[in-house]
From TrEMBL:
<feature type="transmembrane region" description="Helical">
    <location>
        <begin position="432"/>
        <end position="453"/>
    </location>
</feature>
<keyword id="KW-0813">Transport</keyword>
<feature type="transmembrane region" description="Helical">
    <location>
        <begin position="348"/>
        <end position="370"/>
    </location>
</feature>
<dbReference type="InterPro" id="IPR037272">
    <property type="entry name" value="SNS_sf"/>
</dbReference>
<keyword id="KW-1133">Transmembrane helix</keyword>
<feature type="transmembrane region" description="Helical">
    <location>
        <begin position="390"/>
        <end position="411"/>
    </location>
</feature>
<comment type="similarity">
    <text>Belongs to the sodium:neurotransmitter symporter (SNF) (TC 2.A.22) family.</text>
</comment>
<feature type="transmembrane region" description="Helical">
    <location>
        <begin position="147"/>
        <end position="164"/>
    </location>
</feature>
<feature type="transmembrane region" description="Helical">
    <location>
        <begin position="216"/>
        <end position="244"/>
    </location>
</feature>
<protein>
    <recommendedName>
        <fullName>Transporter</fullName>
    </recommendedName>
</protein>
<feature type="transmembrane region" description="Helical">
    <location>
        <begin position="176"/>
        <end position="196"/>
    </location>
</feature>
<dbReference type="InterPro" id="IPR000175">
    <property type="entry name" value="Na/ntran_symport"/>
</dbReference>
<feature type="transmembrane region" description="Helical">
    <location>
        <begin position="92"/>
        <end position="117"/>
    </location>
</feature>
<feature type="transmembrane region" description="Helical">
    <location>
        <begin position="12"/>
        <end position="29"/>
    </location>
</feature>
<feature type="transmembrane region" description="Helical">
    <location>
        <begin position="312"/>
        <end position="336"/>
    </location>
</feature>
<keyword id="KW-0812">Transmembrane</keyword>
<keyword id="KW-0472">Membrane</keyword>
Length: 455
């Protein structure tokens, strides 16, 4: 594959592209609102532990598989299994990712569509001097009917298809190169502004004082699932990127960089949002609309708020866009490989399918009656919530579990040691985490949840 698609031109651009895939709505939109819904500090602590002990080692395993095979995910996994004398059934590590990536993207584009709308609102001055109530209304109006949502998300789908269809990395690399630093600076400005004008101490208290009585087992599962979601794990992506890994690059070090960058952006987003949430008496558990109902209040009051507000949401769009491209890539690569389509045909078909699937989320948001499904008992849940729950909290941790077992038990030590290419001590640590810590933790969380739910 490296002959067809090329390698990243340098270690730096590899890190940037992988960071671009990692940093996205998960950090800026999802992390703050699920933290808000799950009580703050204890959730953050569990999330950080999951990133360090499970997320980073699994990321290394995925990059290792891609680096070894230099093929699309399923094929790389098969090559590595075969080389270790194992069954080619381990290709399941590739398939699960394609399915998860597709389902995630179906709601991801709709939320990215919100950000496109808010970029427009910001630059056109819709936030100016608006209080919490009017800002809340703006969000309600956006979700009143399907057409606006379909249009805004259609934008993202179209853009993704165009970039992925061309199969280019050059353009993408440049865009990420430029936008990631701007996003970082804008976030820092927002944190500064929130610290100066908002209720910063309450926000810090909320985010970093761990009160475990506020955290349920479901909350623990959400933290675990989010650590996979935010690092783009178990979706084939990191295997894909590993296949492009430049030769002189340490996959261990770069994985740690990527995870640190991703975590920093998430924490900064929390520190930008919660001071404003608390200062305006908004509920921390407001749900998916949290960032859209809080930050615009600040933009509406700060000097140059029009410029800052528009630019901020533009950066969110860019961050979401670089992740969307990564998300669609697994479906596209699968179609090219297994259905013999050209890249253009593959990305257009995947894009159309995703746009259709996104309607489930669109109608969930507008509150269409049919968009709510009944599960067992009297649990009723919208398609949007269902998609989010099944992907992040079930498919990704399960995929991570399989990858951990594959990389640490099935792959021969000789091969993993050589491909990982690190010090003996770090290798042991990595192996220990994947052999025992990750599987035990993931299974324990699942079992506890099932026990608690009394299924
Ligand atoms: N990591 C992305 C985010 O935090 O927004 C979401 C994501 C991208 C998940 C790519 C999975 C993926 F393959
Ligand atoms: Na992320």
């Amino acid at each position: 594959m490296s002959q067809n698609h090329g390698q990243w031109t340098s270690r730096f651009s590899y890190v940037l592209a992988a960071t671009g895939a990692a940093v996205g709505l998960g950090n800026i939109w999802k992390f703050p609102y699920i933290m808000g819904e799950n009580g703050g500090g204890a959730f953050v602590l569990v999330y950080l532990v999951c990133i360090a002990l499970i997320g980073i080692p699994v990321m290394m395993a995925e990059v290792m598989i891609g680096k070894f095979g230099r093929q699309t995910p399923a094929r790389s996994a098969v090559l590595m299994a075969k080389a270790s004398g194992r069954s080619s059934a381990w290709r399941v590590t590739g398939w699960g990712g394609v399915a998860a990536g597709f389902l995630i993207l179906s709601f991801y584009v709709v939320i990215a569509g919100w950000a496109v709308a808010y970029t427009w609102y910001g630059f056109s001055g819709r936030f100016e001097n608006q209080g919490a109530e009017q800002i809340g209304l703006l969000f309600t109006e956006l979700n009143a009917g399907p057409w606006a949502l379909m249009g805004w998300s259609g934008f993202i789908v179209l853009g993704t298809v165009l970039v992925v269809g061309k199969g280019l990395q050059k353009g993408l690399e440049k865009a990420v190169n430029l936008m990631m630093p701007i996003l970082f600076v804008l976030l820092a400005i927002m944190v500064g502004y929130a610290a100066a004008t908002g209720n910063f101490s309450e926000a810090v208290q909320f985010m970093f004082a761990a009160d475990f009585s506020k955290l349920s087992w479901n909350g623990v599962l959400i933290a675990l699932g989010h650590s996979f979601f935010t690092l783009s794990l178990a979706s084939g992506i990191m295997m894909m990127y590993g296949a492009y890994l430049p030769d002189n690059t340490s996959l261990v070090k770069t994985s740690v960089y990527i995870a640190i960058m991703d975590t920093l952006v998430a924490l900064m987003a929390g520190l930008a949002i919660f001071p404003i949430v608390f200062a305006n008496g908004l509920p921390a558990g407001a749900g998916p609309g949290l960032i859209f109902q809080s930050l615009p209040i600040a933009f509406g009051q700060m000097p140059l708020g029009q410029l800052f507000g528009g630019s901020f949401f533009l950066m969110v769009v860019v961050a979401a866009f670089t992740s969307s491209i990564a998300l669609i890539e697994s479906s596209v690569a699968w179609l090219v490989e297994n259905r013999g389509l050209s890249r253009w045909q593959a990305s257009a078909s995947a894009g159309f399918a995703i746009w259709l699937a996104s309607l489930l989320t669109v109608f969930s948001l507008t509150g269409a009656e049919w968009s709510v499904v009944s599960l067992w008992g009297d649990i009723r849940i919208s398609f949007f919530d269902l998609l989010d729950y099944i992907t992040a909290n079930i498919m990704l941790p399960l995929g991570g579990l399989i990858i951990a077992v594959f990389a640490s038990w099935a792959v021969s030590e000789e091969i993993s040691r050589r491909t990982l290419d690190t010090t003996p001590a770090l290798y042991r640590l990595w192996q220990l985490s994947l052999r025992f810590v990750a599987p035990v933790a993931i299974v324990a969380v699942f079992l506890n949840l099932i026990g608690v739910l009394n299924l």
